[in-house]
Amino acid sequence: MSVSNATAINLARSEFRSLRAFFLLYILLSLLILGLLAGFYYTYEKEQMLSGWRLSLQQQSQSYLAALKFRHDHISRDYTYPRDARFQSAIYDIDRQLIFSTLDNPDTDLVRVIRLDKGYIQFVLQPEYYYLGAKYLVLEVKDDALWHQNALRTITITALGSILLLALLGWYIAKLFLRPMRRAIRLLDRFIKDTTHELNTPVTAILSNIETLQTLSLDPKTQKKINRIRIASRTLSTLYDDLTYLILHHNVASQDEKVDLSALLWERIDYFHLALEQKKITVTTAIEASVIHKIDRRKISRVIDNLISNAIKYNRIGGSIHFLLTPELLSIEDSGQGIAKEDIPLIFDRYMRLDKVTGGFGIGLNIVAKIAKEYGLTIDVTSELEKGTRIELKWSQDA
Length: 399
Description:
This protein is of the alpha+beta class. The chain has 7 helices and 12 strands. The strands form 3 sheets. Strands 2-1-5-4-3 form a 5-stranded antiparallel β-sheet, with helices on one face. Strand 9 (320-325) and strand 10 (329-334) form a beta hairpin. Helix 2 (146-214) packs antiparallel against helix 3. The radius of gyration is 42 Å and the shape is rod-shaped.
């Protein structure tokens, strides 16, 4: 996989996460607004339906009041309660006590003029005269729910169309806002790649020439200066390797082989011996011989180098580092400044720097975490402020 392809994949993943977060929030807000509008529309349709029935029942009540008046005037001859095929009815006295009812829904509300309840529309009228002792006349019809079905159909069709339109609009807006970020990321990525490429040649030249100078007979003062240059050059070389891995190699298929971790660990300790000597750090080891694991040699070297580099970088002058290697785990314990308990979960985040003075870019432990995840390794961190840190890398049973 080329650098450009790896970059494109990383950029696409970052864009997808950003777009997903924005899009979810946008859709939730859009649904909330659409829900409120749908509620208002449904209420409006209901009120329109009730308004229509109010006018209709108002007109129908006139003939019914005439029937009540006739029964009232001829009660001695006719005791039957008047009925109308168009609706059911009931009459209540001034104390709101029921006089007679043919209602299907016995729950009435004499305060509201018209209402919909349990599928029935009830209209309350107060006659001018108390026919048959009635202060309140209630007319009731069954709701056919056609307005309800039409309202739901309209809301559903409108909502689906609106959601589709809002989704397309939201996606366009999100891509529009992400465009400057995409350009900035690509520019930064190109800068890092170009810089990393340009670093390789001078770093290699410096290290090669320093190794040549090591073979010459130099006075102690000059030799000390050469060693400082060598340490700085190796630090720069480690940073170059981290940047190269970050940009390219974490997306390259692993070339797993049987690696003697015991020999590799000794080799990497020796690589940092000048930095260890400069800070007067004492090294103790408990490294079992011939610990073999199938793993990508370049990647496990990155892990070991970053762990050792941090153990040196954040250690105190005259401190100590203890290396432990068994077939089950690799442990590196230092006597440095330590990490606050609440900060331990953050140390593997990319660009996280808990100490702004010591230096670094905050990518080393992020690389360690990525490689550990790739191989199913478990990382345990134990640390105490001003006492030191122990990082254990544990292999799974089937590794």
